[in-house]
Each structure stands twice: as structure tokens, then as C-alpha cells.
Amino acid sequence: MENFASLLHGFGVALTTYHVMLMMIGVFLGILVGVLPGLGAPNGVSLLLPLTFTMDPVAAIILLTSMYWGALFGGSTTSILFNIPGEPSSVATTFDGYPMARQGQATQALTLAFLSAGFGALVGVILITVLSSWVAKFALRFSSPEYFAVYFLAFASFIGLGAASPLKTIVSMGLGFAFAAVGMDTVSGGLRLTYGFNELLSGISFLIAVIGLFGIGELMLTIEEGLRFDGIQARVKIRDVFKTIATLPRYWVTLLRSAAVGCWMGITPGGPTAASFMSYGLAKRLSRRKEGFGQGEPEGVVAPETADHAAGSSAILPMLALGVPGSATAAVMMGGLMIWGLNPGPMLFVERPDFVWGLIASMYLGNIVAVLMVLATIPLFASILRIPFAIIGPVIVVVCFIGAYTVAGRPFDLWLALAFGVVGYLFKKLDYPIAPLVLAMVLGDKAEDAFRQSMIMSRGSLSIFWSNGLVATLMLIGLALALGPLLSTMLGRVGKPKGSSVVA
Amino acid sequence: MISRYTAEIGTATLTAGLGLAAVIGALEFGIGWGDAGPESGAFPFYIGLLVVAASIGTLTQATVGRHGLQSVFLHKEEAKRVASFFLPMLAFVVVARLLGLYVATALYLALVMWVQGKYRLVISVTSGIAAAVIFYFVLEVAFQVPLLKGPLEAALGLY
């Protein structure tokens, strides 16, 4: 009940005209970046972040999270109408959403997608409301070794649960840590890894990396594939919307299962993309109408959308309560919190309850605003995609570079963004995962601090990571996850070859 | 035409190089035990080693499985498309460093629209300048975020 009172207080913080207006702006910009190729949630939040440095943290986080919701919804719109996923996490929505739209059921597909997405997000937010202060209280007992173990666990789960090759995950993650180490060493205050370049003295900002990797890299990939927008005319008829709403309860099993999958993948750093694929796979396997999947089965829209948004919103939970973001976008937002002078983690609940609960309350409101706005603006955004790429492409490029410059006002960052763009293009083409790199850049200093402080506490003995039940359990789970792929290939060689059960 | 195998090898060599750079850079700052716990090079040193090791692993995997990687990584047609996008972007960054972001924006948008979009020159140039002016008002006036400026802004007295 304590949480409920805090939540009501949070609604008091969030429900001002100014904040609701910010929510609408955020959602609008979010749908825009979600719809445009090359711009997505992590990138959109990175571009907007420098403009919020002067804002009040509560207002700023409301703007950014609303943008996140908007981007998730925008990604589904293009998946259904254009067969182009605006976001990696809405790839699974194209499987059945686009066929539905081609059969003249665009309104039904969009309504189902948005409503089930809204449902998923709501479940995620309720989970945050119920669990966050409990997790934060638990985490107050953590000291440096436990923190390092949590970070270790987060990165290990990328290796163990990710779809990409474990070696490539390690490369991507390690590079993230290395980039984070450039510049000032937060423990000793000395400089390192600058190789004599003045430009590297202040380090490499993770925002530049995100803008390059996700924005410019993604654009290059879009261009290479040759852009074709075979859009489907969509005019949302109010009557169809209500008819579709009436059919939604039929999918309650899928909704609940997908929300559960999404929440789990969001809290562990599996992320929304993995969640939506997994949920789609489960729905297909368990459905009575298996053969309809891929040809416009409504359940095939409900399942990935619910999981995508449940994961997207529940990724905020570990970010707030532990300081370990569950997705690339959450990582960017967490970086933002640190720039605003807030320290994500359990102390945030003690020091800034107004911020935490205002944010949580705004997540309820923001998602409702997002569902309504996205339904109302489909025609507008569908027409944006009909603008020729010779105009929209360069505009996105300019926005990315201007965004990169506004991070710190350093001309050198323009080159960095371009370099990260090339790396992002190569990595995406060769199936290197990018999220671990971003997460490592955001968490690099914190993980290193935790490690070094643990070493100081133990006078250099690694045994501190086995010194009590809590830290030992965390480390063991982490090790099991990290070594999981290795063990399973070894077991696979010894035992009989199993049918592949790869979870995307 | 580039094969997937070549691309895998190239990228893994690049990541190994970056890892090695971290290792070498870290050695300069000490990787042992100092007065205040581990020295500041220790963490980057081991991270760098990890990257090198994983890159070598990827190289080995690619070499062992090279028969499976003969698929085409980049067609000539695709390469042309990427180049037609990348080169103007590169030029944009170079011009932005010399003349500032606003001038670069106007030039870049106008040229891409004119040359690649086949719009009329007047329309392209007007759009480019309009975009730069809009960016100016949104960023400098509304959000008070200064962008990189060049000689033109100085001549116009805009700071």
C-alpha cells in the first residue's frame, strides 16, 4: 500500500498541464523517429537528450520516456503499413501485420497492434509499480562487490541469452568498455588512453556512439537494401476501431503470455527485440490456427506487440532500481539521468522519490496518450513516408550530425559519429549485436569503479566475489550464463545432435 | 564484389586492432597494484585482451567455416548505392568543419536534392536554405543550443 500512496503522489507530480504537454510532444516526436528509417528509439532519445540538459529532471525524463513510447508505436505503424520495421523490435510485427493490411484489414491490424502494445506496456508499468521499491530496498544492501556482480550478470546474459555469436557479443561489449575508459579515469582522476590526442581528453560520449551506430549505420543499411515504400493506404475508420476493440478479449491468453514473456525479457537485458520474436514463436507454436501465421493472423500481431512494449517499459525497472538498464534505449536514458546529476539505483528512491514516482505515474499517462495519438495521426505519418528519400534521407543525416554536435559542442564529434556509423553498418551486416556496446559504454565507468573498489576492499583478492551468499549467487548465475553457450556446444558434441531451439 | 568471408576477416582484424590499441594504451598507465588499488590501466588492459582474444576467436571461426561464408557481402549495385550516400555525407562533415553546420546543411541538402533527387535547381537551393534557417530558429533561438559556425555567420554577425 505504501507503493500506492507513492504512486498517487507521483500522479500529483506528473499531472500538470506542462508535463502532459511534454508527453504529447514527446510521443509525437517519438512516432516521428519510429516511423522514419534510420531513426529509432535509442537514437531519437540521444538526439533529444542534449536539448534537455537545462530542463528540470522530472520534465526531461517525462519528455524522453514519452518519446520512447511514441517510437515503439511508430515502429509498429510502418511494419504494418509498409512492411518496413521502423524499429528492430517490430520486425516480428511485419510477419502478420503487413499481410493483414494487404487484405484490407489495415485498421484492424493497427488497432490490434496499438491496443495490445498498450496492454503490454501497462502490465510492464504495473510490474514496475509493484516491484521497484522492493527491488530498490533489496539493492540498498548492495556494496561494491554485489554491484559488480549485478553488472557482470547483465553482461553475461547478453552472451548467454543473445541471438548473436557469443564471441561477437564479447567483442562488441569489450569495445564498449574500452571506449568508456578513454579520457578521465574516475577513480584516480588521471587521464588515460588518449594517445596524445587532445580531442580524446574528455572521452568518447556514448551519445555519439548511439547516433553513429544506430542512426547513420542504420541509414547506410537502408540505402544499400534499396528503399521501396509499397505503402498501403490507411484511413482509420472509427467504427472499425471499436469493432476491433470488441474482439480483443478473445486473445486474452496470448496477451497475458506475451506480457509475461515481455516483462521477463525486459527485466533481464534480453530487450524488446528478443521478446517480440520469442513471443511470436510461442504464439505460433501454441496456437490452434498455426497455418494462419504469416498470412495475416491477428494473434501474430498481438503477440509480438504485447511483448515488445511489455519489455520496453519493464526495462525501466532495473534501470531505476539497480542502475542496470535492460535495453539500449534505457541505457541512453540512464546516461541522461547521470548527466542531470541523478544517480540511478536504489538511492534514487530515497533521495528523489518525487522524481521516481513522477516518472512511474507518467508512464501510465504517457502510454494512454501514445495510444490515442498514434491512432489519430496514422494518416499524417503514413504520408511522411511517401516523401522521396532524396529529401528525407539527407534531412535525417543532418539531424544526426547536428545531434552529435549538440552533445558537447565539439567539432571532433562529427568525425566520431561518422566513424561509428561505418562501424555500425559493418556490425549490423555481420550480425554483431550493438546493444551490448552501448550498455558497456554507459556502464563502463560504474562497473570499473565497482570492480576496483571491491579489489581495494579485499586487498586484491578475487575471493571477495564469493564472500557471501548474495554475491556468490549473482556471480554463479552470471558465470552460468556466460559459459552457457560454450557448455552447450561441448555437450552437443558429446551427446546426440539435438534439433535447434534457438531463441531469437 | 566482396564476399562475406572477406568482410568477416576484415572486421575481426579491425576489432582485434582496437583491442590491441587498448592493451598498448593501458600499459602506459600501469596495470598492476598501486597505492590506491588497481592502477588505472588495469581494467582497460584486461578488457583489451578480452577483445583481442574474442576477435581471434571470430577470425578462427571464419577461417574454419569459410566454405559457408562465400555468400556475397556487397554487390556492385549495392556498393554504388552506399557510396552515393556515404560520399556526400563525408563531404558534408568536411564542409561543416570548414564553413559551419548551417552552410554545410544548406549545401548538402540542395546538392543531394538536385543531383540525386532530380529536382529543379531553384527548388533544391530554396529547400536547402529553408532547412538551414529552420534549424537556426529551432536550435539557437528556441533551445539556445549553439551550433558550429563558420565565416558566413561571422560576416552576418550571428553568434
From TrEMBL, chain A:
Every DUF112 domain range: 21-439
Superkingdom of origin organism: Bacteria
Transmembrane spans: 20-40, 47-69, 109-135, 147-164, 170-188, 200-221, 259-283, 319-343, 355-382, 389-408, 414-443, 464-487
Keyword Transmembrane tagged: yes
This protein's UniProt keywords: Membrane, Transmembrane, Transmembrane helix
Entries under InterPro entries matching the protein: DUF112_TM
UniProt name for this protein: Tripartite tricarboxylate transporter permease
Automatic annotation (TrEMBL), chain B:
Pfam families: TctB
Keyword set, alphabetical order: Membrane, Transmembrane, Transmembrane helix
DUF1468 domain mapped to chain residues: 16-147
Membrane-spanning ranges: 12-33, 45-64, 85-115, 121-139
Signal peptide stretch: none
UniProt cross-references to InterPro entries, sorted A to Z: DUF1468
Keyword Transmembrane listed: yes
Name under which the protein is recorded: Tripartite tricarboxylate transporter TctB family protein
